[in-house]
Design goal:
- The strands form 7 sheets. The protein has a 6-stranded antiparallel β-sheet with strand order 15-16-17-18-19-20, with no helix packed on it. It has a 5-stranded antiparallel β-sheet with strand order 1-29-27-26-25, with no helix packed on it.
- It is mainly beta.
- The two termini are 22 Å apart.
- Helix content is 0%, strand content 53%.
- β21 (231-234) and β22 (240-245) form a beta hairpin.
């Protein structure tokens, strides 16, 4: 059933450009410049490829498996992390290894570059470390209450938000702290800063989303998700937050006074759990992928929601277009210009599509 199309409204389509077969399930994929991309697999393989030509090669590995991949803003350096507890820095131009160092823990699960590209942060068990763009250590945080599940730089680069048991904490740009804390019962799992920096969104173990109003510290906790949030993505204009929970994509409107008191919209198109969501850069298209092997495209800013077919549930918007793959979708990434979409799956297949 690979690549079977299910045209729903006819507004968009996915046209396959190339396919690459990697060594294991795709953990993460990111475009560098143009159609060039980097990927990491569950087997630990680090790959560079050109999505337009399907010309790719395995440039290195993390023994035990790959966990994290992050591209320096501008696309010059790729940082990877794995179950060997190491962070490796790769030159995007030639695939050469620029740095390779131990983090002091058994796994490096999250890596995030500061928006200016001058340094990056990585999770180190219960701590977070910061290094320069060439791998020189800058600082390391105090211990959190549990293993740090996620990290995210504030858009202005002034501090780092962390997710762990007990809620969200903040570190300085040198990893000092935590300096502040947003308390929450249970564990926080993933973070997403609104690009304009007004809100920090946090997906939690108890199947809620927490919006933190950064200027005031006010928190807005949203309930009613059928399952814990597995992925989230902000639109570039900062108005929309897409969250993956269960078989639907839940869309929150943060315009004006924000999401408080607003009913979200459910984006329909999947038959299984949604595993990935990604907004098109500078565009109005949202891509989602699921455990059902579906890749869906939505244009929620142009469609009027319809009443749910089930009483007391939020309004819905149907997918514009979808295709069926043979394996669970594990990663999505757009080119900078938003013209192509990379889709990684659990079988190790990396497919590149042109969106038209």
């Amino acid at each position: 059933m690979s690549g079977v199309k299910r045209r729903l409204r006819g507004g968009l389509s996915l046209q396959k450009v190339s396919t690459l077969r990697l060594d294991e399930a795709v953990v993460a994929v990111h475009f560098l410049q143009g159609s060039r991309l980097a990927a990491i697999t569950a087997a630990g393989g680090v790959w560079l490829a050109d999505g337009a030509t399907a010309n790719g090669r395995r440039i290195g590995e993390h023994s035990g498996g790959g966990l994290a991949l992050a591209v320096q803003p501008g696309g010059a350096v790729v940082a990877s992390g794995g179950q060997d507890g190491r962070v490796q820095l790769w030159r995007a131009a030639d695939g050469g290894l620029a740095a390779n160092f131990e983090t002091g823990t058994n796994w490096a699960e999250r890596i995030a570059w500061r928006p200016d590209g001058g340094r990056f942060a990585a999770t180190v068990g219960r701590r977070v470390g910061v290094w320069t763009s060439v791998g020189e250590p800058v600082g390391i945080s105090d211990e959190h209450a549990s293993t740090v599940a996620d990290i995210a730089w504030q858009p202005d680069g002034s501090r780092i938000a962390t997710a762990a048991y007990g809620g969200v904490a903040y570190l300085t740009a040198t990893a000092a702290g935590p300096t502040d804390h947003v308390a929450l019962k249970g564990s926080s799992l993933m973070l997403g800063w609104q690009p304009q920096g007004k809100y920090l969104a946090c997906g939690n173990q108890d199947s809620t989303i927490l919006f933190v109003v950064v200027q005031t510290g006010e928190t807005l906790q949203m309930w009613g998700f059928p399952a814990k949030v597995l992925a989230l993505s902000w639109s570039d204009d900062g108005r929309w937050l897409a969250t993956a929970a269960g078989s639907g994509v839940i869309l929150w409107d943060a315009a004006g006074a924000g999401p408080k008191g607003r009913t979200p919209t459910v984006l329909e198109g999947h038959f299984g759990f949604v595993t990935a969501v990604a907004w098109q850069p500078q565009g109005g298209v949202l891509a989602s992928g699921g455990a059902d092997g579906q890749v869906c495209l939505f244009m929620p800013t142009l469609r009027r929601p319809r009443a749910s077919r089930v009483a007391d549930l939020p309004p819905e918007i149907e997918a514009e277009h979808s295709i069926q793959l043979e394996a669970e979708v594990t990663a999505l990434a757009w080119t900078t210009g938003g013209g192509m979409l990379a889709v990684g799956d659990r079988s190790g297949t990396l497919s590149i599509y042109r969106v038209a």
